Amino acid sequence: MDTLTAITARRSIREYENRPVARETIEAILESATKAPSGKNRQPWRFVVLQGSRKAELAAIMAQAAAHRKEQGLDIGSCELSIKAITQASAVFAVFNAFSTEEADYNHYRLLTDTQSIGAAVQNMLLAAQSFGLGTLWMCDIFYAEREIRAWLNRSSELVAAVAIGHAAQAPWPRSRKAWQEVTEWGQE
């Protein structure tokens, strides 16, 4: 599958078949993630692959955090959909920023640089999975349970995202996007 086709065909998948993804495929996707451009070549991304009971534990932690927030009358976003995707997916990648909580002189510009680099790594992951015929879901609902997840995984690094991956059990229609002409200006004289 060529790159433009992968970009155009990619969808956020929230339902998965009960079929495993081969470890070699997961490793190839991770390899693709590490090939992303990285500001100052810092390569701030770190990944934890969760499968089987560890994935179920992640879903339980998120469900508990969502229930607690609901009891308090707080928003839980699309947390329930993310929990369902985590439960059904073959694997979930927890994505961390290795530097934001570790460097004494970490500043706003390093955060922007590292966040962009991590976003590029996640996008590479999504496109690589697409090229293998797999579905993915880039999730940020993990923020509702960030402290709990970090403690459970014994990580001091900042949790930035999670990506569910598996064999899609749905084929969503493309979501509307603004035309490039609506969001672009030409810087000419």
Would you give an account of this structure?
This protein has 189 residues and is of the alpha+beta class. It has a single domain, classed as NADH Oxidase (3-Layer(aba) Sandwich), CATH 3.40.109. Helices cover 42% and strands 14% of the residues. A four-stranded antiparallel sheet has the order 1-2-4-3, with helices on both faces. The N and C termini lie far apart (40 Å).
CATH class: Alpha Beta
How confident overall, as mean pLDDT? 96
- Residue share in helix: 40-55%
CATH topology: NADH Oxidase
Q: Radius of gyration from the CA trace?
A: 17 Å
Instruction: State the low-pLDDT regions, or none.
Output: none
Widest sheet: strand order? 1-2-4-3
CATH superfamily: NADH Oxidase
Task: Compute the number of helices.
Answer: 6
- Strand % is 5-15%
Q: How many domains, in number, for the residues?
A: 1
Order of helices and strands: HHEHHEHEHE
Number of DSSP E strands: 4
CATH architectural grouping:
3-Layer(aba) Sandwich
Provide the structure class. Answer: alpha+beta
Separation of the first and last Cα atoms: 40 Å
Q: Sketch the major β-sheet.
A: 4 strands, antiparallel
Question: What characteristic shape results from the CA principal axes?
Answer: globular
